[in-house]
Amino acid sequence: MYRRLPILSRPPGPVVAFLLGAVCLVTSPVPAAGQDLVLLNANVVDVNDGTVLEGVHVLVEGEQIQDLREGEYTPPSDARVVDLQGRFLAPGLMDAHVHVGSSDQAWRALLSGVTTMRSMGTSHFVDVGIRDLQRSGHLQAPEYLAAGYHVRPPAAEDFFFDHPELGHLMEDEIRGEEAVRAMTRAMVSHGVDFVKTNATERAGLPNTDPRKRFYSYAELSAIVQEAGAAEVPVAAHAHGDAGARDAVAAGVRSIEHGTYLSRETLALMRERGTFLVPTIAIVRDLTIPGGDYDNAVLNIRGRHMLPRVQEMARMAHGMGVKIAAATDTGYGPESTTTLAHELLELVEIGMTPLEALRAATLVNAELFGVAGRTGWIGPGLEADLIVLERNPLEDIGVVQDVLMVVSDGEVIVQRGDWPAQRPVSQ
């Protein structure tokens, strides 16, 4: 039988809430060998029960995990073999809130260990294109769930360039039930996986009020109904409590950010199974120079918002609300936030390392609607994997330094000094 290693329920010492270093460097991909993959001597992290399977050989055929074996094993002569020598194998990470709009950005996300991500807004339906190119094998990128434009007042100007037939809606700024239905239908017509709406104003612009409500309950309900007719879920950006509560009552699948949510709204989310995507690390980014945000007004705002979003997320966790891990970044050349930093923040607000890792795997797989095929390591699942030097269930910070990324059965990057194929441990 596999020998399951004991796991600490909490980290052994104080956890640093945010580490700016160890941002993933762009590394040339390992050439595809066009052959099956065998990972020898892996310590497999089981995110289902929080144990580690020690000394396992993981067999990958094509894009799927075929088997997990123990004991003596001779790999096929034509397989690509990598001896992990006791390194830790975890599921590929999932980022529930990104704004990736180019192949370069998608590549940087993949190098950081993100093998699946959910778009929460791009221009010109670039996320739909990236998704389709990746699925057809023409682009090396994480699996991408697309959302197109935000349904918000006013809509992005670019939206009307893509849909000039809706130009008559420019004056009313996509307000009113008929207008939001029309824009939602436009999103659905492009085959989006989620519809993204803004229940409140943004936090990342200096002239906005993140508490201020954008849409009424009736308008939010119209968006959810229109998207639901096509079986497309809705994600709602919301910092303020009133806007968020209307969105939850209207039936959205997730609340993005949720900085000022009340206990009552969180209780409604728990009751309805609404996911919370707190994006704490990007709020910290508001408070420091550089990164995705570098503005004096936002710096002041961020120093107020950070303790509030931490307090809210801590309360949500204690109440049993489903918390999903996300960055709210574009993985651009100036970005200093990765999903690992969000996992550190989740541990800081009271999650165990296992719960934080689940937020980036099992919970996100459920949120995305792909739980039957990815999110953990087992036979028949997609071979989306990361290799870590140490046990992430004891130190979640190790996820900042991903040694190997496997996406759809292909080794994308392999960092460090790795020996040639070694014999299987007896």
Overall description:
It is a single chain. The chain has 426 residues and is α/β, with parallel strands linked by helices. The chain folds into 2 domains: 126 residues, Urease, subunit C, domain 1, CATH 2.30.40; 276 residues, Alpha-Beta Barrel (TIM Barrel), CATH 3.20.20. 30% of the residues lie in helices and 20% in strands. Strand 2 and strand 3 form a beta hairpin. Helix 6 packs parallel to helix 7. It is globular and about 70 Å long. The N terminus is likely disordered.
Task: Please supply descriptive tags for the structure shown above.
single chain; 426 residues; alpha/beta; TIM Barrel; nine-stranded mixed sheet; five-stranded parallel sheet
Main β-sheet description: 9 strands, mixed
Order of helices and strands: EEEEEEEHEHEEHHEHEHEHEHHHHHEEE
CATH class of the largest domain equals: Alpha Beta
In CATH, the topology of the largest domain is named TIM Barrel
The pLDDT mean sits at 90
Count of spatially separate domains? 2
Helix coverage percent = 25-40%
Estimated share of beta-strand residues: 15-25%
SSE blueprint and pairings:
Blueprint: E1 3-5, E2 37-46, E3 51-61, E4 64-69, E5 80-83, E6 88-91, E7 93-98, H1 103-111, E8 114-119, H2 126-135, E9 143-145, E10 150-151, H3 157-162, H4 177-189, E11 195-198, H5 217-229, E12 234-238, H6 241-250, E13 254-257, H7 263-272, E14 275-277, H8 280-286, H9 296-319, H10 339-348, H11 353-359, H12 362-368, E15 385-388, E16 404-407, E17 410-414
Parallel strand pairs: 2-5, 2-6, 7-8, 8-9, 10-11, 11-12, 12-13, 13-14
Antiparallel strand pairs: 1-3, 2-3, 3-4, 6-15, 15-16, 16-17
